[in-house]
Design goal:
Elements (H helix, E strand, L loop, with lengths): L8 H6 L25 H13 L5 E5 L11 H8 L7 E5 L4 E2 L3 H4 L19 E3 L6 H16 L5 E2 L2 E6 L8 H14 L6 E5 L10 E5 L9 E2 L6 E4 H9 L9 E6 L5 H4 L4 E4 L3 H17 L6 E3 L2 E2 L4 E2 L9 H11 L18 H28 L5 H7 L3 E5 L3 H9 L6 E6 L13 E2 L11 E4 L5 H8 L6 E4 H6 L1
Parallel strand pairs: 1-2, 2-6, 6-7, 7-8, 8-11, 10-12, 11-13, 16-17, 16-19, 17-18, 19-20
Antiparallel strand pairs: 3-4, 5-6, 9-10, 14-15
Helix pairs in contact: 5-6, 7-9, 9-10
Length: 484
Amino acid sequence: MWWGEGFTEWTAVRNSKPLFEGHDQPRVPLNNNYYNLLDKETMRWQANLAKQYCIDGFCFWHYWFENGRKILEKPAENLLMWPDIDMPFCFCWANETWARTWSNIARPNYWTTKYEPEKNGTEDGILLRQNYGTEKEWTDHFYYLLPFFKDERYIRQNGMPVFIIFRPLLVGCAMPMMECWGRLAKANGLDGIYLIAWGLPQVERPYDANIIDILQNANTSFQKVSGGNLKTIDYDATWASFLEIPLTHNETELLCGCVGYDTTPRNGVSGTILKGASVEKFQYYFAQMMRKSIDNRNPFVILNAWNEWAEGNYLEPDETTGFDYLKAVKKVKCNGESLLQNHQVIVKNEDDGRFLYLNKKMNKYIKQYHVMYKWLAIKISHGSIENFFIGKGYNSIAIYGWGDLGRLLATDLEGSSVDVAFIIDRRGSELYSIDKPVFTPDNTVFPTVDVVVISVVDEFAEIYDSIKGKTTADIVSLETIIEE
């Protein structure tokens, strides 16, 4: 009705044109795999591909307009009927009115005359209107979602199905609607709904968490190409500013990075492009985002996107890079590659174990240097690390790691009101000169303290996992303390 019989987004992708020298368009799926998501074997292929490259699940766009109008719902509904496809998933409600904003499609050009029908009653530009209704509409919406929420593949947090709202500021009835959903969830055997907002300034009721999106925080210093409306944004500057956003270390701020971005298949000469992307850069920045998320104890890391081909933002293999973006995800997440490598010195030969070891050691020392440098700056400004512990109500601590940073921490707290009760170190009894009790990480349980401080840089996640069941104390990294 809008763009003519037979139109799909593959139509836009196939017909995209390069708009300047070096512009990577059109993007072509590997082996010309212009697939159909209604095909079961396509869904199975995607599920297996994601698992092979250490991707844990998918977030499907979910559309529910006024009067319960659905669109693009069939792949998820089919998945519900195909329990043999191992595809963990959740929904993000794309709660925006649909309008004719895809300018490369909505106006005649070199190809759309074939697909663009007459106005068809859409002179106001509105295709589907978003309206939230009242309790009846909320209830209808909930009961549509309930079979998905109860599916064993549906992604959960704290035992509750995860549901994301893409434009939370547009939902004026969010509080009563989610109170209604909460009642219905418990009446139907669920513990509740883990509700995530996308892009709020801060987490607030009724939301349990908030997504910080790299594209919503993109560098706004556009460069216009050839004096036209085409806008480019620097890939490196966008990632760098995104990674500098401070987090509150309370698990509720989730990071969403991107593979790339190029809207010219949809918007033509009015599109926006993240310029300068490469597999090596993506791997480096994704590693940084993973480390930051781990340090913040976030339950999820989000990548945009799996197959947003018409926005040049996808992990699926194409004719230019093959499986390289997927391989980058796997290297960072599953192969234990250093999360601190600078992309200018990425290890090219994975078989060169000696170089990998030296590179990892170098990065560790660099990070240790930065911690010590910031620590020194605090002391020069007459600050004290003691203030952190007092402010948090920590009177007794244990130090994990008796290296340079661990010893400095103990020295800095001498004579303060904070008691260093004991040390945890892999060398155990070999540290005979310490006047504190020393335990190895293998101990079944540790004495009671208020907090365990991990002084070892670049190993927080692994150490945290190894000791979290052996102590009731909070566990924080020294790097976090210095940053705060």
